[in-house]
Design a protein that fits this description.
- The protein is an alpha/beta fold.
- The protein has a domain at 8-263: Aldolase class I (TIM Barrel, Alpha-Beta Barrel), CATH 3.20.20.70.
- It is 36% helix and 18% strand.
- It has helices spanning 27-40, 54-63, 90-97, 111-118, 122-137, 150-156, 158-171, 187-200, 216-225, 247-257, 271-282, 303-311, 338-347, 356-372, 380-390, 441-453, 505-523, 539-542; strands at residues 8-11, 44-48, 72-78, 102-108, 142-148, 175-180, 205-209, 230-233, 299-300, 329-330, 395-396, 399-408, 417-425, 431-438, 464-472, 483-490, 495-502, 535-536.
- The strands form 5 sheets. It has an 8-stranded parallel beta barrel, surrounded by 10 helices. A 3-stranded antiparallel beta sheet has the order 12-13-14.
- Helix 6 (150-156) crosses helix 7 (158-171).
- The radius of gyration is 30 Å and the shape is elongated.
């Protein structure tokens, strides 16, 4: 464990992160991210390159209206052009117009770039570096220098690379950030190069790494352990090509593993929500296996692992997930053991303990369903309903009778539309026939079913579908393949997932939809507005029975999965 030492955090999500192939942030997005980074405890926020595009210029104007409590906004740009004095350079003028107290300028330190890209003498580049830093330092509180391609330059011509950073140190740079711009260096050589730079200049050093060799975080840590006092990176590792060093992982590793001070300890719990916010505003699905903050980062599937964490979480978790604002999750699959099931009963707050017979029967059913193609990794709600039925605690909020779906397209230029007809028996014993039109069969079914149930259960109005995924399971079967449908729903307070499986995508979707509604009603302990109280599902009907292990409904029809209503239906 290293002695406690403050590490400056320099975020370049709003500049380098926006160079990602699939990222485009609005000015409003950038302001919102800057506010979150400030709350989180980031020291410097690079707002963009004022001279490169109107959006970055607009950001610097808008952010002036925001009161930041901690972070300093940094304007980014390049050194002056060859043959132009600093005071006459357009880029430097735009940096100053951004009206920030700090600026970061990038300049060449690899002789290859000086000769091939700039096509100027090596000495002329040194003059550019010094002139630029001196000019800005006379007008700004802080000036950082990004030593572009420093590690590549040092590898082939260490004397010249060191000469470049000596030039900016003498010119008064407040910090020199050593950049692995191509992202191809490895931790051991990064560490050795940072040590050499530290011996060459008295100026504080930073580290800026790209992830082209998948070691940007490791390289950054190597830089810090060898003397760098500032780390540059982006939230979630966004950036050009393979991305930048991921600040999320860097902060957690430095603070939790090595004892450096990055953010106030209580703010570290904001790590996960900060990661999710940037994903959301960048319109990128969160990476489930991302270290520390991913949905799967503390997910346990194997029965042996679940048994271990119930005794001591340290057996299979390297940190407490709560430290970074994440949660422990126990998954259910054919790999599950009794420990997984018991953990879930406690997680769901079930008062009744499963008997050994029920436990074994449920575990066998779970493995059978997983073998057929169901997955409960993202469908805890479907599994909770399955457990409730096994214990005879499920409530029959309505009885499915039939559904029918019509798809129509009347001429080539018209978008197709779907009409669904759903017949159910309500909790008062009355049958209703409800129709709805949607932009597809699933949307129409969802609307018709909820329209039929709203008179009995008004709280369903707050429920909505937020995600819908279809996966084809059988290779080589074409349109006759089985599909698995996962649905994510919310009522504004909770969010839950359900699953359906069939060779008919409408039927698979129906299964997941019905489970989603039944789960909402179960969690609300819903009572119907009209008629008699809901009927309890007879234990014999709810239990997992017969040789195939299938649950039998009151209709006498066998279930093909864990849904409430999979009786006969017509679809077209």
């Amino acid at each position: 464990m290293a002695a406690t030492r403050k590490i400056q955090l320099y975020d370049t999500t709003l500049r380098d992160g926006c160079q990602s192939e699939d990222v485009s942030l609005t000015v409003e997005n950038k302001v919102q991210i800057a506010q979150r980074l400030d709350d989180f405890g980031i020291d410097y926020i690079e707002g963009g390159w004022p001279g490169s595009n109107p959006r970055d210029a607009a950001f610097f104007s808008e952010i002036k209206r925001v009161r930041l409590r901690h972070a300093r906004i940094v304007a980014f740009g390049s050194t002056r052009r060859h043959g132009v004095k600093a005071g006459q350079d357009r880029n430097l003028e735009l940096i100053l117009r951004a009206n920030t107290s700090a600026a970061c300028v990038v300049g060449k330190t690899w002789d290859l770039h000086v000769r091939e890209a700039l096509r100027i003498p090596l000495k002329a580049n040194l003059e550019i570096l010094q002139d630029t830093i001196r000019y800005l330092k006379q007008r700004l509180d802080e000036v950082f220098f990004d030593a572009e391609h420093f590690f590549d330059g040092y590898a082939v011509n260490p004397e010249y690379a060191l000469e470049c950073i000596r030039a900016v140190a003498e010119a008064g740079a407040d910090l020199i950030c050593l950049c692995d711009t191509n992202g191809g260096r490895l931790p051991e050589e990064v560490g050795a190069t940072v040590r050499a730079a530290r011996e060459a200049v008295p100026t504080p050093l930073g580290i800026h790494c790209h992830n082209d060799a998948e070691v940007a975080v490791a390289n950054t840590i190597a830089g810090v352990r060898n003397g760098a006092v500032q780390v540059q990176g982006t939230v979630n590792g966004l950036g050009e090509r393979c991305g930048n060093a991921n600040l999320i992982s860097i902060i957690a590793n430095l603070q939790l593993k090595l004892g450096y001070e990055c953010v106030p300890p209580e703010r570290l719990k904001m790590l996960s929500e900060t990661s999710r916010l940037v994903y959301e505003l960048a319109n990128i699905p969160p990476h489930p296996r991302q270290a520390y903050v991913g949905r799967s980062a503390f997910a346990h599937k194997a029965g042996l692992h679940v048994s271990g964490i119930q005794r001591n979480a340290r057996t299979y978790e390297h940190i407490d997930p709560a430290l970074v604002g994440n949660d422990r999750r126990v998954l259910l699959s054919e790999l599950s053991g009794r420990a997984n099931i018991l953990y879930k009963t406690r997680e769901f707050g079930m008062r009744s303990e499963l008997t050994p017979e029920q436990l074994d029967r449920l575990l066998d059913e779970l493995k059978r369903l997983e073998g057929e193609g169901y997955t409960f990794d993202g469908a805890d709600a479907s599994f909770e309903l399955l457990m409730m039925r096994t214990l005879g605690l499920a409530t029959d909020h309505f009885r499915f009778v039939s559904f029918r779906v019509f798809d129509d397209k009347w001429h080539e230029d018209q978008a197709p539309f779907s009409e669904a007809v759903v017949i159910i028996e309500g909790p008062d014993g009355q049958r209703s026939r409800t129709t709805a039109i949607g932009n597809g069969p699933v949307n129409a079914l969802d609307s018709a079913l909820r329209r039929a149930l709203l008179p009995y259960y008004p709280k369903l109005e707050r429920m909505q579908l937020v995600d819908y995924k279809v996966r084809v399971l059988d290779d080589g079967v074409g349109t006759g393949a089985r599909v698995r449908v996962l649905i994510e729903s919310t009522d504004g307070t909770r969010q839950w997932g359900t699953v359906g499986l069939s060779s008919n995508v409408v039927e698979a979707s129906w299964q997941a939809l019905v489970d989603s509604i039944e789960y909402k009603l179960h969690k609300d302990n819903a009572r119907p507005r009209l008629g008699r109280s809901p009927r309890k599902v007879p234990k014999a009907a709810a239990a997992l029975t017969n040789g195939a292990g299938r649950a039998t409904r009151r209709t006498g029809r066998k279930r093909s999965g864990p849904t409430v209503a999979t009786a006969s239906s017509e679809s077209r």
